[in-house]
């Protein structure tokens, strides 16, 4: 196995472990579908608990926001060295269209810049029965794609040694 393959496996396991300790993710059935060096794909299966309008089956916007925030945050945790937790500092969402009832949602999150104090991310949510189908729908020739929502998010770096007193800090 190559070092690159080992890194992908390690990143996938790190992301899955992080996701497994978040109670809302367990409740919603979120899973990690794919991780590489810069991209993390998370699935939110369609179910009655994410529906905002029971008459039409349309997904609630809060479910989409939760998916994007969690995918971006999990990407940040996964791609930073060690186990640095970074709370959401800012999340800007654009809803492109209503999600089609019955189809799973896939968040494709990417870390775009890491600074000493903030990590910047982007995320697109697409739909399909499988991730491959969702990608094919989003990239089909002449199609407007199946882009449901997009976001830009920033996460504050608080460091791995949170709570450790630094020289000169008040005690």
Question: What key phrases describe this protein's structure?
Answer:
six-stranded antiparallel beta sheet; two-stranded antiparallel ribbon; 171 residues; 30% helix; alpha+beta
Trace the largest sheet across and list its strands. 1-2-6-7-8-5
Mean of pLDDT: 88
Distance between the first and last residues' Cα: 49 Å
Largest sheet: 6 strands, antiparallel
Strand and helix order: HHEEEEHEEEHE
Assess the beta-strand content as a share of residues: 25-35%
Structural class comes to alpha+beta
| Number of H/I helices | 4
Query: Using only CA atoms, what is the Rg?
Result: 17 Å
Secondary structure: number of strands: 8
Q: Helix content range of the residues, please?
A: 25-40%
Shape: globular
Q: Spans of 5+ residues with little confidence (pLDDT < 50)?
A: 163-171
